[in-house]
Records
---
Amino acid sequence: MSALSDQRQASTFDIDIRTLRPADSPRFTIDQAHVRALAESEAEFPPILVHRATLRVVDGMHRVRAAELRNRRTIGARWFEGDEHAAFLLAVESNTRHGLPLSAAERKEAALRIIRSHPHWSDRSIAERTGWNATGVGALRRSVADPEARPEARVGRDGRVRPATAAEGRRVAAEVIEENPATSLREIARRAGISVGTARDVRHRLAQGRPAVPGGRQSDGPDAPAGASPASGENPAGGGTARDIARRITLFDGLRNDPSLRLSESGRLVLHRLHTQLRTTEEWKRLAPTIPLHGREAVADILSACADDLKGMARELRCVEDSLTG
């Protein structure tokens, strides 16, 4: 169920139009002709959506202006609970699914804003939400100067975490083949986040003694992290090398397919926590510059303590495994 359908099931109430704030909307302007057409119609308007924390209109500014032309002081509304990033995402989703269509420029600007707020989302995920195309989103991503807009791994529409570049996917495929040369092409493609054709090409190149990445390239040009060492694939902002990140993704995908985890409530919670943990480093790298100087030491102490706790839990898990297999 989408966030939009969730909001349609919320309770409706009347709100004073004078208390509402303008929408943080993907639209650049209000279409006055559309407002007049709404006002002159005899139809009752569907309830608008209002961000409870800010009283900004999430969806329905044309209806609000039309209600004002009808000399109405109130309008039917539903609350949206969530932060401002989530409110904007819902505004984009609402405006691409009904009402007056967004212009190409508005969809492009919405995609650019989502790239900056949710860099870990795949190009296809962003395209689906903005009504744009994945190729255009990818070109936009490469035009953004901030390297955080191009993380090593991204979350697709199906919730799976995959390497962001074809070159990294080829390297993961090579590791899978080296571990077990008998692995099927379909399984190699699934674990590396690449097509079956690319998996076949990697296997063919390795059989001929050639590198998995054509030309020995270590990245796919524009998508390579700024400052990364071509020889090592290191991520200068932290979070481990590209190989480390790809290994985590591969391990996580293996766990996702384990029925003992996927089909139990506690197992699904474990998978959810791991999925969140995979995204945490990239999110902290994006948030770090926004932390005021006087608060950075305290944030660093908390993060360090949390890291120690996670390392302790990892040691406990290994001890349990050793006791069971010893």
---
Amino acid sequence: MSCDGRPLRISVFGAGSIGCYVGGRLAAAGAEVTLIGRERVGAEIRDGLRLTDLHGADIRVGAADIVFATGPESAATADLVVVSVKSAGTPEAGAALASAIGSDTVVVSAQNGLGNADTLRAALPEQVVLAAMVPFNVVHRGDGHFHQGSEGDLEIEQHPAVRAFAPVFDDAGLPLHARADFRSVQWAKLLLNLNNAVNALSGLPLREELSQRSFRRAVALAQREALTLLTARGIAVAKLTPLPPQWIPRLLTVPDGVFRVAGSRMLAIDPHARSSMWDDLEAGRRTEVDWISGEIVRLAAASGTAAPVNARLVELIREAEAGGNRHWSGDALLDDLRSRRGPRKPTGKRQRN
């Protein structure tokens, strides 16, 4: 509820898979929700939403309980705007909202990447703009059905404004965890998201891809490269899983049987889950690889060095967007990425990664 006793008014700007799922859960909890997105989404959900998750939840939101719109003016009376557009659309979203919402509207960037909240702040200097992180995967299953395929709680930048809307997120089963050092949370999420490109190139559901050691080793190469750069720059990385981030690449390289047990304890993933990058390739959309693997490439450039593994993943995703290979075997992808690293210094020990 808002401070005057009426239902909280929430607009979701960019109603894709994440936006429809989060917005639908909030509507089911009693918020007045407006989904703002493309006409094709509105046509699909005209009879309402079905929201399921890996724990067995099955929530129906009737068409009368949610409003769908295509223009930013529909956010004019919102108490809270959740921005869930793809990263490339953030400048346009900021400009559109600047002409539509009041100065007392709180804006939350629930997007991948590191700089989207800053982009929105530049466009919305009078509003409180907060960064948030959605850790779980949402699969669009068609006919208004959106499925949460992995676990995790929402993280948000710490700010007094969060108190006004946190209760409705709690009621929706989407509790908000406020963090003072949110940039470390974003880096932690980005490290986990380095699997997105590998998953998209495998063409497999997440759980099947991660069941194969060669694919996991490919992810570990990308993560180790990133962690080396982050450590050199003194950049903190939050602990989002039971394992510290520095230990995750080691876990990824263990034999399949060991990983089945240890990996399931770290993160629950159901058979339907896929990465958003796979979903974008499947739909013929440009992916967010520049805001995930590309962030590591830019960090390396700023450090006067290179990130050849992550740079190659960006290159392969761009090729896949243009019709290239989207069904790599784990061995072939791992060999390709290893070949890009260049010569390694001898250590006297056999290298396994």
